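User: Fold this one for me? It's Pyrrolo-quinoline quinone.
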Amino acid sequence: MIKLHSFYFRLSYCFFSTFLVTGVSQAQTALDDFENISLEELAKPPAEDWLMWRRTANHWGYSPLNQINKNNVSSLRLAWAWTMEPGLQETTPLVRNGVMFLPQACDFIEAVDARDGTLLWEYRREQVDHIASLSCANRNATLYKDQLIITTRDAYLVSLSALTGEVTWERQIGDWTIGQHYSGGPQVLDGKIIAGMSGCYYINTGCWITAHDPDTGEEIWRTNTVPKIGEPGGETWGDVPNEERRGGSAWMPASYDSDLDLIYQGIAVPIPWGSIQRDTRGGDVLYTNSTIAMNADTGEIEWYFQHIPGGNWDQDHPFERIVVETEVTPKADQVSWINPNILSAERRKVVTGIPGKPGIIWTMDAATGEFLWAKETNYQNVIVDVDIENQKGITNPEIDITEIRQRKLVCPTTTGGINWNSVGYSPQTNALYAPTNNTCMDYYLNPVNPTVGGYHSSAVSLKIPVPEGDGQIGIFTAVDVATGEALWTYQQRAAITGSVLTTGGGLAFVTDDARRFRAFDVDTGEILWEQILNSSAGGFPTTFSVDDIQYLAIAAGGGVNHRTLTPEIRQRSGGNMLFVFRLP
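Assistant: Here's what I get for Pyrrolo-quinoline quinone.
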C-alpha cells in the first residue's frame, strides 16, 4: 500500500519536475483501487472509465453509460467543482477506477478522487520561456498500465506514475527553443505511444508523427508531415529548400483502426500561410491540410487525401478523424459532393467527421482513402469541388491571393466554422453531431517575418456578415453517416464552440459561447437540460461511473469563441473550473 503524507514535496530525479502528494483515508482508498490498464482495455474500455482523449481509438466521443438518459437528464445537478490552473484551458478529464487525472495549462497535472475532487497528487513541470503563444495548451494525456503519459510544452514525452505523479521516464523529442511543442497529447495505439509534434509555425521547419515504446519512451519510427527533398511528396514543394519547408503541425491526437492496422492523422497548414510567401504557387505542398493513413508498424504513409492543396487562408485540417463501419448510400440531394462510382448499399469502414475549419464533413474509405462524399454544415467559400481521381479538394479561384495585402472575403474566419472542438458520433443513430458556425472575414497576407510568424491578418466584425445570413451563428447538426442527410439542425445567435459527448442514454452534450452546457436528444434535437457555467468551455466533456453512479464532467474557461461577432454576449476571461454533475 502506498503511504500518503499531508502536503509534502519530493524532488523527482527529473531536473524539470516536482510533484506533490496529499491524502486522507478516502484518497488512499481511491488509489488502492487503481488497477493497471491493459492493451485490451484500451481497445475496449470498461464503460465506467475514460482512458484516452475521445474514450476510444476511433474517436467517437461516445460512452455506453445510460444511467443519465432522456427521461431523467432534466434532474442532473452539480456534484462537485474544482478550481483549475490559470492559462489555456483545453483539458480532457481521464478516469480509471474512481481516480480522475486532469492535465492542465503549462503541464500542470492533478489526480483527484472522481467522487468529490479530493486531491491525491500533483505534478508541475518547470516552465520555459517559449516563443510559441499556444504552447501552454494541454488537451489530453493517456493512461496505460500504471502510467499517465503526457507530452509537454518543452517538446518532451513523459511517463508519470499514475499512483504518485513521479516521473518514471522522459525523453526529449523536439526543440522548444525553435518553437516546437505538443498540443494534442499522446495515445497508446497498437501497443505504441503515438504523438504528433506541433508548433511548427515559427522559425523551425516541418513537424512529424512518432511512435514510441510505452515502457521506455524509445522511438520506434518517425514520419515527417512535411516531406523533405527526395522523400515521397517532396516534389510538391517545388524548389523550396528543406530548411524553409515549414508547417504541418499535428495539433490533435491520431485515431486508429485495428482491423486495417492503420493510424489516421490530420495535418495542419503550410507555413507561411500564402503560396506567394512560400514561392510554391501551383504546388500542393504535401502533406499539409491532409488526412494521412500510416502503417502502425512502420509509420509508412499508405494513403492520403488532401482537403486543401497549396493552402492560402489558414484553414487548418488537423482535427479528429472518426472511424465508423457503415453502409455508404449518400443521397445526391443531401450532400455537397458525391463519388458517382459508389456501389448501392455498399458497406465499408470509413474515415469521417469534420477534419478542418471550413466545416465540411468528409467521408473517405478507411482502407484506401477513396473519396465517397462530403457535406457542408456551415457557409464556406474556400472549397468548391473535389478532384476524385487525385484525392484532393478543389479551392475557389475567386479567393486566390496574388499580392501581399490583397484583401479577399473568406468564409469562415481563421477561427473556423469549427476549430479543435470535436464532433461526436453515436452508434445508436449512426450519426455525427457537428458543432459549427457561420462566420466570414476580410483576409490578407503580410510581408514575411522570418523569425516569429504573423504571416497573415484578418478583420472579423459585424460589418462582414455571412452572405444571405440571418445573424444566427451557432449551428448544431445531426448528420446520418450512411446517407449524408441532416436528421435535424439547431441554430442560435451564440456560437456553438464546445466539443460533443454522446452517450448510451440517447444524449448529445455540447457547450456554447453563451456559457450554456446542454443535453440534446440525439434523435430529435430537443434540448432536455441546460446549465449556465461560469465561462465558456474549452475542455472536452467526459462521463464515467464510480460506485454505480454516473457522473458528467466538463472543464470551463477559455476555448474557441466568436464573440467579436456577438458583442452582446459578454463574459470575463479566465475562470478555469471543472464542473462534475450527477443525478440526485
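One thing worth pointing out: Helices lie at 25-32, 39-43, 275-278.
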